[in-house]
Design goal:
heterodimer; A: alpha/beta; Rossmann fold; 10 strands; globular; B: 358 residues; mainly alpha; two-stranded antiparallel ribbon
Chain lengths: 256, 358
């Protein structure tokens, strides 16, 4: 079953075609990786899906519904969560608060009842806390629970951002370079979590990644981009040996 | 040193962290309630003014300290609250109606100004709110039919259930009640989803949006709440000054409010109270030492505003967490005595600045 589809997606910034007629579809339950050299348009695709950028043309379809014109703040409510390449956590809040903000799209409490903190609000707050604790247990973040994000090491922040996205309880998870800035060990850990997210939580993942070992470890299918265009799409093995991809990365003709 | 042992999630969303807090805040409330029996009329009047400024300070704290939006026009909101309350009272509307109406009407004004200025941030928002402040100030001066223009008018004495709220003590108790209410509402807000949304907007708009937070809605909302609280303070302020004239609500007053928030300590309700105490006490201190200062410094015009400015600059440079930060450090020092370490309070430098999407 197809969960997400991009049809002829294009965006232009001035004269630059950052994404040029890109089409792909993501199946329910798979890990779909996007690779490509710097400036290939990978993160731009993420910003298009999370509606931070408007596409120049093309369609985004999620669960059979077009979301090309949905406002950015409604995307999380539909079940699409994302992380950011450079970590966009809320640094002056605690880890717990950060994860609770991930629950925001699930809170239905009226504004006046929040001002008075009515028992109904208290009840839903406790329910949110339970969910957040599940995520904390899943990612093993217990010891940092009440720490300020600004005081946490980079590797932990990366995991917290993943946790915050999981708190949305998404159907589709967009991971923008989950391994960037992590050491070998942490990258390996990230790989296991992505596998767990796929197998245990049954969340579909689209991942932008440079670390080919991680891509090979977790991906079901890989799409290679260069200059905003699709070079190849297929299993990790197929894409890795695709002549166009090798050319884009090594900048040379394939030896015969 | 007290270590909190948490056994229930409830404990993390409770208003008071533990019984120690309950005891000390209870004692503080008792002291404040008993103050009029101990202190003289003048001190009660000044303490009442501290409460009024603290109400406005809490309102501005929600906007500046928690949502990261700046406003240099809060004196206008104070003025709107003051005039609505006084004008309605003069029409014979009871005080228990005019007070909330003043708050609600000012909140609407706040939403109206918040909505178009949403796309601005930082300096641009400061300029826009500054302009709003002077526009409202001009309206107070020119709309003589309602405000009495420069001549102003005397504010009628309010009555609650037939009892006249007279003198410093009456206003003192009403201000105290409103302050407690405003603090309760703010604390509730900060522990619910809306409060977390505010913090999220302050720290990263782009990721707040990706978490499903509607930026425009929450910014307008916070502007409205902040203005509404300042309007309530304004209604009380009218009774504190007893005679309303438009020149009371100038830019300097807005700067005083900003001083409350920064000197008190950004991102803390307690800080707003500390800030209000500071801002009301400083002029009194100046008045006391004025005549003893050498070289005629005490008689220089503009001494007070320049000292406010100096305090603001010094706090931002050397004590970014404000008076509240100093308070927390002092508390930690006593709790850890004699084990305070040099590094405990050293400011951490962060080198991992991310490139933010704007």
């Amino acid at each position: 079953m197809i969960l997400f589809q991009a049809q002829d997606l294009s965006v232009r910034f001035g004269g630059i075609r950052a994404v040029d007629a890109v089409s792909f579809d993501v199946r329910q339950g798979e890990v779909f990786s996007i690779i490509g050299p710097n400036g290939a348009g990978k993160t731009t695709i993420f910003n298009l899906i999370s509606r931070i950028y408007n596409s120049t043309s093309g369609k985004l379809i999620f669960e059979g519904k077009e979301i090309s014109h949905t406002p950015a703040w409604q995307i999380a409510g539909l079940g699409i969560a994302r992380t950011f390449q450079n970590i966009e956590l809320f640094p002056n809040a605690t880890l717990l608060q950060n994860l609770l903000i991930g629950r925001h799209c699930h809170s239905r409490a009226g504004f006046v009842s929040q001002l008075a903190f009515l028992p109904s609000v208290r009840k839903t707050e406790l329910a949110h806390r339970e969910k957040v604790e599940d995520v904390i247990a899943f990612l093993g973040l217990q010891r940092y629970r009440n720490a300020l994000i600004a005081n946490l090491p980079y590797g932990v922040r990366k995991v917290v951002e993943l946790g915050r996205a999981l708190c949305i309880e998404p159907k589709l998870l967009l991971l923008d370079e989950p391994s960037s800035g992590l050491n070998v060990e942490e990258t390996e850990g990230m790989g296991f979590w992505i596998e767990d997210i796929k197998k245990d939580l049954r969340i579909t993942v689209i991942m932008v990644e440079h670390d080919m070992a991680l891509v090979n470890q977790v991906s079901d299918r890989v799409m290679a981009l260069n200059y905003g265009k699709v070079l190849a799409l297929g299993t990790p093995q197929e894409v890795k040996t695709h002549p166009e991809v090798v050319k884009a990365y090594l900048g040379a003709e394939v030896a015969a | 040193m007290r270590y909190l042992f948490r056994t229930q999630y409830q404990q993390d969303i409770a208003l008071f962290r533990h019984n120690g807090d309950r005891f000390w805040y209870g004692l503080l409330v008792l002291l404040v309630l008993a103050a009029p029996a101990i202190l003289g009329e003048f001190y009660i009047g000044e303490l009442g003014a501290v409460f009024i400024f603290a109400i406005a300070g809490v309102g501005l704290m929600l906007l500046v300290g928690y949502t990261g939006l700046i406003s240099l026009g809060h004196a206008a909101f104070l003025g709107i609250g003051a005039y609505v309350n006084a004008v309605l009272l003069a029409q014979g509307v009871p005080f228990l109606v005019t007070l909330p109406v003043a708050g609600l009407f000012t909140a609407l004004c706040g939403a109206a100004i918040g909505r178009p200025t949403l796309r601005m941030s930082g300096l641009y928002l400061a300029i826009a709110t500054l302009a709003f402040g002077s526009i409202v100030g001009t309206v107070f001066q020119k709309w003589t039919a309602v405000t009495g223009g420069f001549d102003g008018f005397a504010v009628p004495t309010p009555t609650i259930f037939g009892v006249a709220v007279e003198g410093a003590t009456g206003i003192y108790y009403v201000s105290l009640a409103v302050l407690v209410f405003v603090l309760w509402v703010s604390a509730n807000l900060l522990r619910s989803p809306a409060g977390r949304a505010m913090v999220a907007i302050r720290d990263s708009e782009v990721s707040a949006q990706s978490m499903g937070i509607h930026l425009a809605w929450y910014k307008t909302l916070v502007f409205a709440i902040s203005a509404g609280m300042t309007g309530l303070a304004g209604a009380l302020f009218a009774h504190y000054v007893r005679y309303l004239a438009p020149d009371a609500f100038d830019v300097l007053l807005s700067v005083q409010f900003v001083t409350i928030v920064f000197v008190g300590g950004l991102g803390s309700l307690r800080g707003a109270i500390f800030g209000a105490i500071f801002v009301r006490l400083l002029p009194q201190l100046i008045a006391i030492v004025r005549d003893d200062l050498p070289f005629g410094i005490g008689r220089l015009p503009g001494l007070e505003p320049s000292l406010f400015g100096l305090a603001l600059v010094l706090v931002i440079l050397f004590q970014p967490a404000g008076l509240n930060g100093m308070w927390l450090k002092m508390k930690t020092w006593f709790q850890a005595f004699p084990f305070k370490r040099q590094a405990s309070f050293r400011r951490q430098k962060s080198y991992a600045k991310s490139e933010r999407l704007r």
